[in-house]
Amino acid sequence: MKSIVDTSSLHEGISRVLAVFQKLRELRGADAILDRILLEAREICNAEAGSILLVKEDRLVFSIVHNDFLFSAHGINKHLYLDASVPIDDFSIAGYTAKHSETLRLDDVYALPPSYSFKFNPALDKQSGYRTKSVLSLPLINFQGRVCAVLQLINSLDQDDKAVSFPEEAVACVSLLANHASACIENGMTTNELILRTIRMSELRDPAETGPHVQRVGAYSAEIYHRMAQESGLDASEIKRRKDLIRMTAMLHDVGKVGISDVILKKPGKLTSEEYEVMKRHTLYGAHLFRNAVSEMDVMAREIALNHHQRFDGKGYPGRVSNIEDVDAMTVGTMAGEDIPLQARIVALADVFDALISKRAYKEPWTIGMALDVIRKESGQQFDPEVVSAFLSILDVIEAIRAKYQEAV
Ligand code: C2E
Ligand code: SIN
Ligand code: SIN
Ligand code: FE
Ligand code: FE
After folding, report:
1. Catalytic residue among 162, 257, 280, 404
2. Spatial distance between the Cα atoms of 120 and 352, rounded to a whole number of angstroms
3. I need a surface site. Which of 10, 104, 249, 400 has the fewest CB within 10 A?
């Protein structure tokens, strides 16, 4: 079956990294998490060996070591290196990575340019008979911006099992993984924080999907839901729980824009109709990222990403989608009214309201009055009338949210 995100290995990589977060959430215990991170990073690069070194005071301590060549063929104990440590200074590869918070991508550690301050230490190779060639050494940064560990991958293998330079796309994906992984290592990482990081990743791609925009859409959606839920008879703690869930997942509504090329995403003018057709696929890409949804949060994120451009009258996109795995069987009919999940009907309004009153590369901001006119006019057509009336009844709250999350200038 063809994957929807098949245009570039980078996007495959992003979806893969999201799947790894999923698995990491299920793991408990620092060692299991480190082991998993190292394994995933190695698989992305087809690296024969690797290690994670944790910062302990002014040294880096080997915490996890993998080596397929040594540990499988020679049966050497995987704890061989576990007591080893190196100082954080300019003179070793790991030390340099940690000291300067810099990624090093080295093609042959036995032929480093003499101008480099660091040298490869051949002692372990000598002891074990292993031959290190290419190395990728990345800093893992914690919330305070400090390096908390170094991830080292050794010998990226090509199809003939020959050690080659680390491929560039793989380096990009491992960097992405490393950035999120560091937070897992620091433990206490909540799902919410993980999602916020995912959002920041998508912001890198779309200048219009700024932090404040995403925060506003999340907050408007949560408050509209709250207003509607008050009449539903749900108990207060359940309303609170769902409200938090909607707020987080609404923030991910456009995460699928990571699958849209910069040429279209950042186009200063109006899109052509072909470009718009491509742009519409961000809904499918977003849903695809959550295709293996297991938690209630993931399911909600998928429903919102997929359905936030449906219209109440059925004229929106992508319509009804039969199988999110299959790019050729996308739309099998329209989707209208209450067939559209409530959260998506709510986000549809919150997103358009915010897009209208914001500046975009392709348009100037509208006044609130103009935006409200459109929303009233579209009640029952583009938007669910019940969502519209809940929204109009909390305009004071909407205004407060808008004032709180303003664009940085
Ligand atoms: P976005 O900028 O976040 O806009 C979200 C939605 O707000 C749009 O969904 C549309 O329903 C509404 N909206 C935004 N600006 C206007 C406007 O000036 N008039 C009206 N009537 N509605 C507006 P839509 O149209 O499906 O677009 C989805 C995304 O596609 C947009 O997200 C934006 O990233 C991109 N896009 C759409 N049209 C253009 C365009 O002409 N040029 C560029 N560069 N991007 C576009
Ligand atoms: C996922 O794990 O499926 C996506 C990322 C997240 O939920 O934090
Ligand atoms: C990456 O590091 O994989 C790229 C993330 C992005 O698309 O901005
Ligand atoms: Fe969208
Ligand atoms: Fe948006």
Report:
1. 257
2. 55
3. 400
Q: Is 162 a catalytic residue?
A: no
Enumerate residues lining ligand 2, CB below 6 A: 18, 21-22, 191, 194-195, 198, 290, 298
Q: How many CB atoms lie within 10 A of CB 258?
A: 25
Task: Name residues contacting ligand 1 (CB within 6 A).
Answer: 208, 267, 270-271, 279, 309, 351-352, 355-356, 360-363
Residues pairing with 154 in the sheet: 49, 135
Instruction: Identify the residue whose C-alpha is closest to ligand 3 atom 2.
Output: 172
Atom of ligand 2 nearest to the CA of 290: 3
- Say what the pTM is: 0.60
| pLDDT tens series, the chain, 409 aa | 333 434 454 555 566 666 666 555 555 455 667 777 888 899 999 999 999 898 888 899 887 777 777 665 444 444 445 557 899 999 999 999 999 999 999 999 999 999 999 999 888 788 778 899 999 999 988 766 788 889 999 999 999 999 999 998 888 889 888 877 766 665 444 445 555 556 555 555 566 666 788 889 999 999 999 999 988 888 888 898 899 889 888 988 988 887 788 889 888 899 999 999 999 999 998 888 777 666 677 789 889 999 999 999 999 999 999 877 665 546 778 999 999 999 999 999 999 999 999 988 888 999 999 999 999 999 999 999 999 999 999 999 999 899 888 876 5
Domain ranges of the chain: 7-184, 206-404
Nearest CA to ligand 1 atom 38: 271
Q: Among the residues of 118-270, which ranges form H helices?
A: 123-128, 168-185, 191-203, 211-229, 236-250, 262-265
Helix, strand, coil distribution of the chain in percent, nearest 5: 50, 15, 35
Candidates 3.30.450.40, 2.60.120.10, 2.60.120.620, 2.60.120.260; CATH matching 7-184: 3.30.450.40
CA atoms of 199 and 196, how far apart (whole Å) = 5
Q: Could you tell me the distance, in angstroms and rounded to a whole number, from the CA of residue 387 to the centre of ligand 5?
A: 18
What is the third-level CATH fold of 206-404? Hypothetical protein af1432 (1.10.3210)
User: Which are the contacts of 207, defined by CB distance < 8 A and separation ≥ 6?
Assistant: 266, 361
**From the alpha carbon of 354, which atom of ligand 1 is closest?**
7
Residues around ion ligand 5, judged by CB within 5 A, are 254, 351
